[in-house]
Amino acid sequence: MIHHISIAARDPQRVAGAIAALWRGAALPFPPVAKGSWVAFADDDRNTTIEVYPFGTELKPAEGDADGEAVTNAAPSPYVATHAAVASPLTQEEVMALAREQGWTAKYRRRGGRFGVIEFWLEETVMLEVLTAEMQAEYLAFMTPANWRQALAAGPPAAAP
After folding, report:
1. pTM above 0.90, yes or no
2. Structural domain boundaries enclosing 75
3. What is the CATH number of the domain that holds 8?
4. What is the pLDDT of residues 31-70, one digit of tens each?
5. Does 160 have pLDDT greater than 60?
6. Considering the domain boundaries, does residue 141 fall inside one?
7. Which of 7, 89, 13 is nearest to 50 (CA)?
8. How far separated are the first and last CA of the chain, in Å rounded?
9. 49: which residues sit within 8 A by CB, 6+ positions away?
10. Contacts for 118 with CB less than 8 Å, ≥ 6 apart
């Protein structure tokens, strides 16, 4: 189980606010790691959060017996492999409306013909796969070790339309 992840954004407050809106949660400042950081709370029974650090923040191990530290990379790539699938109580239409309000890309996609997600592109650089209630049911029904083994044995999925 994942309790929290962290991402970087050019406007951490705005991004944390949008994520919190997807969850009907709350966004608050998060100063412990990097100045200007924010955190989105799902306000669920698992205390799920996404920490949003300023763009260019990198976490690295510290010397000796010390906590890891945040440093700033002056020339970071705007794209990352990091993404997360997140459940939302919103409908597909509400998720799309939120993306339009923010000026970000959002589109419905099917993953391997098995389950749907909404690609929700925070600041056009970090992708959240947002799952509505219906999409969550599809995801949970498919994404098991047994089903994944069966899918691997069947070969690659059909190309997305």
Report:
1. no
2. 4-154
3. 3.10.180.10
4. 888 899 999 999 999 999 999 999 999 988 888 998 888 8
5. no
6. yes
7. 7
8. 31
9. 3, 4, 39, 40, 41, 42
10. 92, 95, 96, 106, 107, 108, 109, 129, 130, 131, 132, 135
Cβ count within 10 A of residue 65: 5
Determine the Cα angle at 101 with ends 95 and 103, to 5°.
100
Domain tally, the chain = 1
Q: Is residue 161 part of a domain?
A: no
What dihedral angle (degrees, nearest 10) is formed by the CA atoms of 60, 66, 70, 72?
A: -70
For 80-90, what is each residue's pLDDT tens digit? 888 999 999 99
CA distance 117 to 20: 18
Residues of the chain with pLDDT > 70: what percent? 97
Asked if residue 104 belongs to a domain, the reply is: yes
The pLDDT of residue 80 is 87
Asked whether residue 160 is assigned to any structural domain, the reply reads no
- Per the CB < 8 A criterion, the answer to whether 123 and 10 are in contact is yes
